[in-house]
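FW: tagging you since you asked about this chain on Friday. Here's the raw sequence from the shared folder, copied in full. Didn't touch anything.
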Amino acid sequence: MKQNNTMALKLMDMTTERDRVESFSGGKWPFRTGLLAPQKMAEAGFFYCGSELNGWDCVRCFVCLKELGGWEPCDDPWEEHRGHSPGCLLARLARKQALLTVYETYDVMAAHCMAIQKDLLHRRKAQLEELHKQVENMIRAA
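HL: got it, structure written out here
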């Protein structure tokens, strides 16, 4: 459960564009200019989550939690976001946070919190299902 809490805390830290831009600074993000520059990616809601496991060009939306990779220099982060996560409120609004109304900001943050809770519940359910299998196996073995 500790790993789940760590992920939730990281997601909570990515609610500002500044924090999302900073997430690209220590990684191996391959694009520094153009449409995929860290500032542009952060405006579209993405923070850097690349690794050897999921690819060095992997990003995640702080609102809908969608992970995207396989970026090409000509990709537009807003178009890709909407195309791969049409239900994301931030992607549908297609405006950086500084240009959102107070009501839109509230709705985006509410969607962010709900996505985190859904993600945590999904992870916890998977843990409980695994525990259930282990208990069943122990009972069968006894």
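FW: The radius of gyration is 18 Å.
HL: agreed, and The helical segments are 2-12, 17-23, 38-43, 77-84, 89-93, 102-141.
FW: great, closing this out.
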